[in-house]
Amino acid sequence: MIYLTADLHGDPDRLRAARRKLRRRDTLIVLGDFGFVWTGDKSEQKRLRRIAKGRGTVLFLDGAHENFDLLEEYPLVDFAGGRARKLGERLFYLERGACYTIEGRSLLCMGGGESEDPADREEGVSWWPQELPDEADFARCRESLAAHFGKVDYILTHTPPLRLRRFLLPGDREQDNRLEIFLDTLADSADYRCWYFGQLHLDRAVGPRAVAVYRRVLPLWVPPKKKLFHR
């Protein structure tokens, strides 16, 4: 079984609770802001080793709040039909724009996000310019989708498409970023069953084909029911 959650922000209690659902062959995918790769110190390395040896496999997309310099130091390896950075035996960082096949399901993944408070953060310490994808990431995503003839089972992102952010958070902000705009075009061009995303700190189904994920731990291919979610 594949499960989804989002925005752990390095909280070991939330990760521990999420993994209680897992059997050894299960997979937990964190939809960005994983947060356990931040300082690179010995204590953090020890925790990552424990995560990599725990129950099930843990995969994560990047969000806005990651130490991208540290993430880029991990080796890029072949994984589930795509490429991913290997942090441990059962711990992988999923590449932006890659498509993976896990338990027979095709998953198009795109990490990345935009910090709301970059002026209050320090570059290279609490903020990294790599947080937003670039054209190479977008090209990889388009190529991955084309390789699957425009059709995947699920799209997993940290950031929602522009239309969904505006719907869920009306009046949130006026400026749109290039990732939201790209994801809007992806929503129009891709054939998919359901789109799951994090970032907004909401657990809410947006109709039958889009789900905002935060604290809940959701089985991937169970159709969402609105009564199970709340703002």
Which percent range describes the beta-strand content?
A: 15-25%
The global form is globular
Give a quick account of the main beta sheet: strands, pairing sense, barrel closure: 7 strands, mixed
Radius of gyration: 16 Å
Stretches with pLDDT under 50, minimum 5 residues: 226-231
- Secondary structure tally: strands: 13
Q: In whole angstroms, how far apart are the ends?
A: 26 Å
Oligomer: single chain
Number of helices: 6
Helix content: 10-25%
Structural class: alpha/beta
- H-E order: EHEHEHEEEEEHEHHEEEE
Q: Main sheet: which strands, in order across? A: 4-5-6-3-2-1-13
Give the rounded overall mean pLDDT.
Answer: 93
Describe the overall structure:
The chain is α/β, with parallel strands linked by helices and 231 residues long. Helix content is 24%, strand content 23%. Strand 1, helix 1 and strand 2 form a beta-alpha-beta unit. The chain is globular.
SSE diagram, text form:
Layout: E1 2-5, H1 12-19, E2 27-31, H2 42-53, E3 57-61, H3 68-71, E4 76-79, E5 82-88, E6 91-94, E7 99-102, E8 105-110, H4 135-147, E9 154-157, H5 162-168, H6 178-189, E10 194-197, E11 204-205, E12 210-212, E13 218-219
Parallel strand pairs: 1-2, 2-3, 3-6, 8-9, 9-10, 10-12
Antiparallel strand pairs: 1-13, 4-5, 5-6, 7-8, 11-12
